[in-house]
Structure formats: structure tokens, C-alpha cells
């Protein structure tokens, strides 16, 4: 029922020219893969060029960050109004934003609200740091982050039809990304990920309702490669992946998406 979802987070990599080249290397193969929502999240400066390249394809575009105001004297920031002309998704609350740029739960909450209010679909990132993991605080941290990010958001705000829960679930994607697994080559285990993602579904069920908790897409992120993707997507709780480093290699990323389509397709 939940459409599998794989997004590539390019982070602060690729010039505009390199980004175009990367898209050229994968667009045909990626476009052909059915049964998975495919999203590329290049740097801001590449969005216009890549938006044009993706016209008429089944591949969607996302940004990596956004400010919560729609316009004004905020030098250097990018608003939801600017993004929504170019892309459908926006990554919010990534651990690198939280860790290096001081994004608090409150800021992430404002950004999620602003994105939804402006018809952008957030890919909300949550996840515990190494010391929190070792102290057995994974659920506590993830609970706090999800509760805070969705604070004050009514399911009805997100809805454009009478099928409230389905509409809500379609507009929001959550990525569970344990910080210790990001860019380290040390991915979490499939079982750990499945348990935490189920926990997130229960948190969402408490905030909104059970059907949204069930319908919402929740991804895993952290050192995902073509060699380990199966471990995650073979878990029924896991709907796909947010891929960093491996999304910068066309062949790797295509293989991750292809394997996701095959495994999730088989389970239907
Ligand atoms: P990684 O990054 O795949 O390079 O670990 C994932 C992410 O930060 O989204």
C-alpha cells in the first residue's frame, strides 16, 4: 500500500556541471524503474538545471534545506515559495543541519509547518547520536524529535480531500537516520532499523492516529549501498532509503533503486 521511496541526498557535492553529468549518467535507467518513487536532492544551485533535465521523466526533485519564512530580509536563505516552483520535496532536520548549523527541534518544527503550508513535501530526518545509542536512548531521542517536529500540525491542514489520513501520509516522509551510521560505512542492522521505524509509526499514531502511523512512509538512512540495501528494504516496516554517499555514483544509485523495486514488488 505504501509506495516505496528512494531519495539521493547529494549534500554539498557536485558543481552545476558535475550534477548535470551525474543526472545524464542515470536518467534513462532510473526513469525506467517502476514501483518506486525516485527523488534526487542536489544542491540549491543545481535545482533549476536538473528540474529542466527531469521534465517528462518519472524522477522527482527535492531540496536539502529551506528557511521557514516565505520572503524577506534573510540574507542567504531560500524560502518554500522559491522551492515549490522547482521541486516537490525538501529534506528537513538532517542531522548535519542539526549538528553543524544549530537547528533545534523548534526550528525543524517551523520548517515542517512552512513546507506543508506551501505545498512542499518534507522528508523529515530524525535519529540518535552514538552516545545516545550507547546509553540506550534511541527511542527517547526519536520520540522527542518526532513529537517536536510535528507539534501543532493538524492532519487536516495537510489534507485536500476527505480521505484525511491518506492525504497526510502522502505528504510527509520520515527518514530514520542514526547519526553514527551516516557517512561512516557502519550501517545499522535491518532488525534494529525495523524496530525503530515501528516505534516511529507508534509515535505518529499517538500524535495523529493509527491509520496515519500505518500509511506514512518511513525510510532508513545511513551508509546505504547497493550491497546492503536488501537488508533494510526486506523489512516490511521500512519503505525505502535516504542515500547519501552512494547516490553520487550513478550505477550504485540505480542499483539501490532497482533492488528496492524488485524486493518491494515481490512482497505485494
Ligand atoms: P550516507 O548519508 O548514505 O552517506 O551515510 C545518508 C544521509 O545523510 O542522508
Description:
This protein is an alpha/beta fold and 268 residues long. Helix content is 45%, strand content 14%. Strands 1-2-3-4-5-6-7-8 form an eight-stranded parallel barrel, surrounded by seven helices. Helix 2 links the parallel strand 2 and strand 3. Helix 5 packs across helix 7 and helix 7 crosses helix 9. The chain is globular, with a radius of gyration of 17 Å. It starts with a strand and ends with a helix. Residues 9, 177, 182-183, 221-224, 242-246 line the site of 2-phosphoglycolic acid.
Brief overview, please?
With 268 residues, the chain is of the alpha/beta class.
Topology diagram in text:
Layout: E1 5-9, H1 16-32, E2 37-41, H2 47-54, E3 59-63, H3 80-84, E4 89-92, H4 95-100, H5 105-117, E5 121-126, H6 130-134, H7 138-149, H8 164-171, E6 173-176, H9 190-207, H10 210-215, E7 217-221, H11 229-233, E8 240-243, H12 250-266
Parallel strand pairs: 1-2, 1-8, 2-3, 3-4, 4-5, 5-6, 6-7, 7-8
Helix pairs in contact: 1-2, 1-12, 5-7, 7-9
The chain binds 2-phosphoglycolic acid.
CATH uppermost class: Alpha Beta
Number of domains: 1
Q: Which class of secondary structure composition applies to the elements?
A: alpha/beta
CATH architectural grouping: Alpha-Beta Barrel
